[in-house]
Write a structure and sequence with these properties.
Elements lengths: L1 H17 L11 E6 L14 H7 L8 E3 L5 E3 L2 E6 L5 E6 L13 H12 L15 E8 L2 E6 L6 H4 L26 E7 L3 E6 L13 E6 L3 H9 L5 E5 L5 H4 L4 E6 L4 E6 L9 H10 L2 H9 L3 E2 L23 H10 L6 E7 L3 H15 L3 E7 L2 H6 L8 E6 L20 H12 L3 H18 L3 E6 L1 E6 L2 E2 L16 E2 L1
Parallel strand pairs: 1-10, 1-11, 15-16, 15-17
Antiparallel strand pairs: 2-3, 4-5, 5-7, 6-7, 8-9, 9-10, 11-19, 12-19, 13-17, 13-18, 14-18, 20-21
Length: 495
Amino acid sequence: MKILLSLWGTALALLLVLAPGAQAQPAPRRVTINISLEPDTLDPTMGAAAAIGEVVHYNVLEGLTKIEESGAVVPLLAESWSVDASGKVYTFRLRQGVRFHDGAAFDAAAVRYSFERAAAPESTNKAHKALFDNIADIATPDPHTVVLTLHRPDANLLFRLGEPPAVVLHPATASQAATQPVGTGPYRIAQRMRGHSITLLKADTYRDAARVPIERASYRFIHEAAAQSAALQAGEVDVFFNLATQDIARFQGDSRYQVLIGSSASKGLLALNQRRAPLGDVRVRRAITHAIDREAFIRKVLDGRGRVIGSHFSPIDQGYLHLAGMYPYDPERARSLLREAGVALPLRLTLTLPPTPYARMGGPVVAADLAKVGIIVRLEQVEWAQWLAGAFKGNFDMTLINHVEPLDYLIYTDPTYYFGYDSADYRSLAERHAASSNARERQMLFADLQRHLAQDAANVWIFAPQNAAVARKGLRGVWMNYPITAHDIGAMWWE
């Protein structure tokens, strides 16, 4: 009887669809995305948090190039480019007919202004060293041409120009970019509710506005599993995006959603403040690395969705070395190194945890491992703004954090960076790698950079997570793999 009823229901549905005058329901024109962390600013050229780019990159603000889900670099504000034989002079032809959200025309002067602003000595742009310090000259021979001359060739230049720190700002309104950025992208900021959400609306000034299906997009800031479940049950969210998501069973059991498991450039680590004794001693850092069962951490905290890593490089990086075996889980070796360093036990340290699930769940796991070797950990839970104002400014002992930016190994050349790693030898290696134009030599130096960080135990690298995104069925264009952390809403559509 149930089978007959089911067949009758299916036949009735088909009759309703095919009946004369029956109207198909229009596809939704809006999308709601959940991200764990709320950006502290909306200017990715001056702020450090990856969450800024999650909201504005490709949506509100654009750069010369675009990085696709595959990692390929394609034109964006630049319609084409060429490079000379030296590998140091790049000529970009800019896309014409592009306007900022206030109607002002985009041109070469805007690119020059944005790059000079990012390269200024007082700039807080996180690509300062990797990108802008290498630009020797910016020429604008006409309104639609930009010529960048580099101090040294950079095989990653086009990729770096597609990252959030290289977006082009409106010269007249750059000072307000932290709260109300004016860009050239398909969306503009419509509303910002602190602690809750940011809403984007399609910009009438966008060059291809008619080809952008989503009219309205909202970002909801939800990091607690219970709150996510509530939003899921209420059908309030279309995309749940969480790096290193721990438990996706609640999504897999809901027929409204599909789970997308992919890769990212993320590196999850226990950062150690080397300005604070005894963490400046390499033996202590090596001891802490030996003390943590990283495989067990991945099983317990990430549901096994990740790989153990041994340096600040991702398995998706070309030239990646798997160095996790340098520090196998060995509590006895950890205790021996602590004795060798003259550390009086118990050693008491504070572990600061941002509000991400991997940190809140992972903190007790790390603390339990360290307790076995005589390190007593006090867990300190903070909100994201507190983490940025505290730990990220160097006020911490240890913190559990996921670095999502690709190819960000140059942060270890900056002794003022929050964990305080200071190695002249590493800086020399990085300079030699950057200056080399020989492919084989660059490959060898890239390997040396990885080995050097691992030997110095500059931090405790724990995991490279799989990326888990959960999307409502029928929503297309959501990335599965994240070579950079961005949500290209203009490329999404509903079936």
